[in-house]
UniProtKB/TrEMBL annotation:
This is Tyrosine--tRNA ligase. The keyword Cytoplasm applies. Its EC number is 6.1.1.1. The lineage of its organism: Bacteria, Bacillati, Actinomycetota, Actinomycetes, Micrococcales. ATP binds at K233. GO terms for molecular function: tyrosine-tRNA ligase activity.
Length: 422
């Protein structure tokens, strides 16, 4: 068990920590109960939360016991942001989002065996707490000077909008979570993102003052690209784990498009590949970057982790089929819809729309004469079949599931025509 910290450090999953030697000794002595909190401030987790769940999974595989906390209480407040007050969601919304997050977490941790995970909700102990008990039993252990010095709080105090007492109190509630889990389950380690360092240490300080015990905290670094820019935006926004908010196909493509400069580091962070496997993939980036073996491994592993192997197989085949390496007609309507979602498109009418019309309407060609020349030279394709007749008209046989028809100019320039099927 003591080797787990070295593994996490090699993977780039450790940023800050309290006494690392004491933590290493605790991990070596036997199973440590640890927790990470997830607030339902949105209906889905995203890639940043995925980092935390992967860290939790590594610790669990090393024999330690995870507590996954979904903040039904703290989610009604929200951790203060660097700028701007959060919009407070109603209780019904937060409860619904809590259930969604629990479902996502349950797919990523193992809930069986001696190191089986446990789901907890801080609404269970915060919901019934009276104001007097909160102030007397918890608030008395916090010092305003320390709370005001927190980076986020200090920045908000210097801004025009300031910070409300509601958001200012968040750090007390998170600290209280650690104390409660320490008392209920013997939890002695809290993990989280590096931006949570102040909240994590507040919990450790509370346990020291209220229970006279020393516990541990550890954070993961903010994940950035090799050029220093923020990591984790798709064309549609955040990298959500909910397939209804970001389709498995778009999710897969995001990872597939990882830059060569980032892919090895992301393989270490986001997959469970061994050092030997990652070394081999790193060599492939240097020797055969055009094959993109590392990117394909990253995309397949992360998509399987989040959405399952069946979804990964569907999107992998869709990705190949778009460029002729698999059968487009074998794709289901949903997968095909997701695969063509970002392509230029136009509407088409069976028996009336010509390929020339569609090439122009989708912007693959600038005019009819140019479209005819492309067809005559063998550079136009319908559903990956080369078009040989410059007067070819769209037929019902050209319709894929969902009424789509894939158009391609040359090897890589794609568009889609959509035909109503009802």
């Amino acid at each position: 068990m003591s080797d787990i910290l070295d593994e996490l450090r090699w993977r780039g999953l450790i940023a800050q920590h309290t006494d690392i030697d004491a933590l290493r000794a605790a991990l070596a002595e036997g199973p440590v109960t640890y927790y990470c909190g997830f607030d339902p401030t949105a209906p889905s987790l995203h890639h940043g939360h995925l980092v935390q769940l992967i860290l939790m999974r590594h610790l669990q595989l090393a024999g330690h016991r995870p507590l996954a906390l979904v903040g039904g209480a703290t989610g009604m407040i929200g951790d203060p942001r660097m700028s701007g007050e959060r919009v407070l969601n109603d209780k019904e919304t937060v409860a619904g989002w809590t259930d969604k997050l629990r479902g996502q977490i349950e797919r990523l941790l193992d809930f069986d065996g001696e190191a089986g995970a446990r789901m907890v909700n801080n609404l269970d102990w915060i919901g019934g707490l009276t104001t007097i008990d909160f102030l007397r039993d918890v608030g008395k252990h916090f010092r305003l000077g320390t709370m005001l010095a927190k980076d986020t709080v200090a920045r908000r105090l210097q801004s025009e909008e300031g910070i409300s007492f509601t958001e200012f109190s968040y750090q007390i509630l998170q600290g209280m979570d650690f104390l409660e889990l320490f008392r209920r389950y013997g939890c002695t380690l809290q993990t989280g993102g590096n931006d949570q360092w102040g909240n994590l240490t507040a919990g450790a300080d509370l346990i020291r003052k209220a229970a006279g015990e020393t516990v541990h905290v550890m954070t993961t670094p903010l994940i950035t690209k090799a050029d220093g820019t923020k990591f984790g935006k798709s064309e549609g926004g955040a990298i959500w784990l909910d397939p209804d908010m970001l389709s498995p196909y778009a999710f897969y493509q995001f990872w597939l498009n990882t830059d060569d400069a980032d892919v090895v580091r992301f393989l270490k962070i986001f997959t469970f590949r061994s050092r030997a496997e990652i070394d081999d993939l790193e060599q492939s980036v240097t020797e055969a970057p055009q094959a993109r073996a590392a990117q394909r491994t990253l995309a397949e592993d992360v998509t399987t982790l989040v959405h399952g192997s069946d979804a990964t197989e569907r999107v992998r085949r869709a990705s190949q089929a778009l460029f002729g390496a698999d059968d487009l007609h074998a794709l289901d309507a949903g997968t095909l819809r997701d695969a063509v979602a970002e392509l230029p498109r136009t509407e088409a009418v069976v028996g009336e729309s010509t390929v020339v019309d569609l090439l122009v309407a989708t912007g693959l060609e600038k005019g009819r004469n140019a479209a005819r020349r492309t067809i005559a030279s063998g550079g136009a394709y319908v559903n990956n079949a080369k078009v040989t007749d410059v007067d070819q008209t769209l037929s019902r046989a050209d319709l894929l599931e969902g009424g789509y028809t894939l158009l391609r100019k040359g090897r890589k320039t794609l568009a889609v025509a959509a035909t109503p099927t009802d």
